[in-house]
Amino acid sequence: MKRRVGGLETEYGLVCVRADGSRALEPEAAARELFRPVVAMGRSSNVFLRNAARLYLDVGSHPEYASAECDDWWELVAQDRAGDRIFADLATQANQRFAADGQDARIHLLKNNVDSAGNAFGSHENFLVDRRGEFTRLPKYLLPFLVTRQIITGAGGAVRPAGKDGEDAPAQFVFSRRSDHMWEAVSSATTRTRPIINTRDEPHGDPTRFRRLHVIVGDSTMSEVSTYLRFATTDLVLRAIESGRALPELSLHDDISAIRAVARDLTGTTPLPLAGGGTTTALEVQQRWLDHVTEFADESERSVLETWQRGIDAVRTGDRSWAAENLDWAIKERLFTQIAERRGVALDDPRIERLDLAYHDIDPAQSVFHALQRRGLAPQVLDEARIETARTTAPTTTRAHLRGQVVTAAQDHGVDHVVDWTTLRLTRPGAMPIQILDPFATALPAVDALLEEIRSQGTAAAADPMPFA
């Protein structure tokens, strides 16, 4: 599939604390306060926005943002960053209400995967695949890539492994903390067993033509380069698998043992047992896939290959000079090392943990990552105008364009409506739903008629219907 639709679902960590750091509100109460403008706008904590994304409160009081469908990976990064900005604004509004009421409370939203209590929350990637392909064949080739992809796109972090006799060993830096929370290679579950690839068959499109590949192993990443590489490299690997040509035989003996071993080896050279005998390494798996997919990349994707290679080389050579300003794990490795040495503390010191959380704070005024960006020590590929546009404008080259038009028109004219990934309808009696099963559709006469009906029956809204965007 040369042209592929994808999307990113991000669960945010939520904490509400007092000035002294103690908990001010339980997550459920803090989430209700955070979503107050959302409920006022859509009479629900589950809404679709003008940019065609879904914003909602997930199980466990996790605020979640699911980006609109994108067929360009930099556009997906822009849409993902727009979600950060929308939620950051909601948090700012909640904090302003706390201050106005004289409450000692402040909400922080964290774009990471593991909280201080060890609870995990996800960053799920979705890729459109052809229904006619053999879906059961995908994991055999995709799993070794996903298990080792963390040496490029991991968010990094410090963990304290269990030592002998139940004692904790010294903390160490890892490529990904998410790896310790994966329990199966492939499963239809998402939370109980938490697999690398989820097989729940929800195509959000024509089920006779499409299937959705749901990858839940990835880290939430602050770096635009890391987020881009998660999708761009996986897309190229999927194209190679779909081609039907010979592929690298790299199936691992135990994917879950391997993913933990890869996380802890910053050299990328730990031997990983293969299913057919012998061993490989994380570096070898990534290099072999990069070499293999080169023929599937067009001229516009040469930069993907070059950036991927630079990430591999950073691990192989130990020269972090490029990676430490572009890839999350390497940025954090340098930052943690500097702070630990400067203050004479170990990686399991509470100050390092607080630094890790602050790195992932999505409030530009509070975030360590954004502070590094302003100092030129973290990447900023997308300009502000593109991110701001993505807050209220859906991608124009996928079905999201139609959904975004309907939501925008309905909000502007005060018309009640219901939309989801495949369906658009008004809530008046007798209104017939419009179903859009083609993710690539950008124009439909039925949608044009619906937009005209909205404009004719509605009245201009007197106030901004979406003050948080």
Description:
The protein is an alpha+beta fold and 469 residues long. Among the domains are: 125-360, no CATH class; 389-457, Metal Transport, Frataxin, Chain A (2-Layer Sandwich). The protein is 39% helix and 16% strand. It contains 15 helices and 18 strands. It has helices at 27-34, 36-42, 73-100, 138-148, 150-153, 224-242, 255-264, 282-293, 302-317, 328-343, 350-359, 368-374, 384-392, 400-412, 445-457; strands spanning 6-11, 13-17, 23-25, 46-48, 54-58, 62-66, 106-110, 123-130, 157-159, 172-174, 184-187, 195-198, 210-215, 272-273, 279-280, 417-419, 423-426, 434-435. Helix 3 (73-100) packs across helix 13, helix 4 packs parallel to helix 7 (255-264) and helix 6 (224-242) packs across helix 8.
Q: Order the strands across the largest sheet as they lie in space.
A: 4-5-6-1-8-13-12-11
Q: Given the structure, what is the number of helices?
A: 15
**Estimated helix fraction:** 25-40%
Mean pLDDT: 93
Shape: globular
Number of strands: 18
Using only C-alpha atoms, the radius of gyration works out to: 23 Å
Question: Cα distance, first to last residue?
Answer: 34 Å
Classify the beta-strand content into a percent band: 15-25%
Low-confidence stretches: none
Structural class by sheet pairing and helices: alpha+beta
**Biggest sheet details:** 8 strands, mixed
Task: Give the SSE map.
Blueprint: E1 6-11, E2 13-17, E3 23-25, H1 27-34, H2 36-42, E4 46-48, E5 54-58, E6 62-66, H3 73-100, E7 106-110, E8 123-130, H4 138-148, H5 150-153, E9 157-159, E10 172-174, E11 184-187, E12 195-198, E13 210-215, H6 224-242, H7 255-264, E14 272-273, E15 279-280, H8 282-293, H9 302-317, H10 328-343, H11 350-359, H12 368-374, H13 384-392, H14 400-412, E16 417-419, E17 423-426, E18 434-435, H15 445-457
Parallel strand pairs: 11-12
Antiparallel strand pairs: 1-6, 1-8, 2-3, 2-7, 4-5, 5-6, 8-13, 9-10, 12-13, 14-15, 16-17, 17-18
Helix pairs in contact: 3-6, 3-13, 4-6, 4-7, 4-8, 6-8, 8-9, 10-11, 14-15
